[in-house]
């Protein structure tokens, strides 16, 4: 009804990690939730301040990766969430709500 996408490209990679590589450190629940929330907050801020320019995408991914490494929560789908927000206008319109929907919801659901 609202025209917002429910599916998220990062969900495929999260599912693969969660169910296909159970013993992999990047598949830990902590990594999934912390990295996804942080990455989505970073991309929402970068998009709000700088738009969807190529360098804004690179900045968002770089900051997200630095945060993941600093907190020990490296989770590759976090970078996919960054790119999805920069590429899909339905996600861009969510602003900071992108942190909760669909990314946090999807991470907790999976």
Automatic annotation (TrEMBL):
InterPro entries: HPP, TM_HPP. Signal peptide: none annotated. The chain crosses the membrane at residues 27-47, 54-72. Keywords: Membrane, Transmembrane, Transmembrane helix. Residues 3-109 form the HPP transmembrane region domain. This is Predicted protein. It comes from Micromonas pusilla (strain CCMP1545). The lineage of its organism: Eukaryota, Viridiplantae, Chlorophyta, Mamiellophyceae, Mamiellales.
């Amino acid at each position: 009804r609202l025209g917002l996408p429910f599916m998220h490209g990062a969900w495929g990679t999260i599912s693969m990690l969660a169910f296909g590589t159970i013993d992999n450190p990047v598949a830990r629940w902590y990594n999934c939730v912390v990295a996804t929330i942080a990455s989505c907050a970073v991309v929402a801020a970068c998009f709000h301040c700088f738009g969807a320019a190529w360098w804004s995408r690179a900045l968002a991914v770089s900051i997200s990766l630095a945060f993941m490494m600093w907190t020990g929560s490296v989770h590759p789908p976090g970078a996919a969430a960054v790119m999805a927000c920069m590429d899909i206008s339905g996600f861009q319109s969510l602003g900071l709500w992108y942190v909760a929907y669909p990314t946090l919801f999807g991470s907790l659901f999976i």
